[in-house]
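Residues pack. Consider this:
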Amino acid sequence: MLYYLFQYLDTAFNFPGAGVFQYISFRAGAALITSLFISLIIGKRLIGFLKKKQVGEDIRDLGLEGQQEKKGTPTMGGLIILAAILVPTLLFAKLHNIYILLIIISTVWLGLIGFLDDYIKVFRKDKKGLAGKFKVMGQVGLGLIIGFTMYFSSDIVIRERVDQQAVVKSDEVFGVETATEQTVIFNKTAVKSTKTTIPFIKNNEFDYSSLISWLGANAKNWTWLIFIPLVIFIIIAVSNGANLTDGLDGLATGTSAIIGVTLGVLAYVSGNIIFANYLNIMYIPNTGELAIYISAFVGACIGFLWYNSYPAQVFMGDTGSLALGGVIAVFAIMIRKEIMIPIFCGIFLAENLSVVLQVSWFKYTKRKFGAGRRIFRMSPLHHHFQMLGYHESKIVLRFFIVGIMLAVLSIVTLKLR
């Protein structure tokens, strides 16, 4: 909203300083600072309100150290994160941008699913919360919206690279041979495409239509049969991964902030024709605007960490964790970095896999030997380390270190091919 106001002031009255709102870097910084202030100010008041209403977390006794001390800690703190993301985005982003519209819809959509789950747990006193099938239905619904829009919308396009040979004229007097150097430019015409980015590969683009090339010339017309189910799977997997990671004070929040910074860098260079050309990566017009959203996202996570770090004064609940994971998935899909998710979301992946392996192995051994056996002392993975005797804050800090290493690796893939 402020973007449009200052644009009007700049064009109509040549208002001093109004032109600075044209710069993504300025608006991203403003969104970051605003989200920090919102999360810090709203957080204190919301925690007081939740305590007054006795909206506390009901902790299951798993025999973990310090677990019962968390009983009664206010939950539904994800409302702080949602407010700190959405308000700066609405203030500083271009709201007519298709990517901004999609990411706002995703945030609200998943936030409502998580809020409904927390509401049933807290106010209806039903520990099971929203039934799993309804959560999945909600995630599938969002996946369909994102998938169909990404595939069919004429506003979502890329500019393909065109390789040319720049000829350097030879010096005929001294008989110097003609030399060439390869330059990379982008086609002036934007096109619909089902291409995405593959890390560690020289020509790091992959077209989903190649998976059904056996259909012949009409293969591209049916690519949506692969693309949309993949979008749905990614949203469900990453959203649930963030939800599973939210088991220790500050773990999901800090990990999401690290991932957010990574996505911000990837979005900015992919949406900037100069950086995309220099790095020889896919240029996606208009995705640079997502830097404003992801700045607010990072600011919201850091601001919430002020209250959520050990010992936590508030938990985000499913209101926050489902939204954070789902937004990360949607963001990665929009900037066509979804194949890189296992790298920068490595913490979420490990948490997910630990649960899948634990449950699968337990069921298999119970069927084969009559008694179930476990790979980990407890899943998700962070609880395994708790059972080994590590303090909660040490586990969280070490997970952050691993997350930062994965973030650096993800950014390095821009040149490491």
Q: What stands out?
A: The two ends are 41 Å apart (CA to CA).
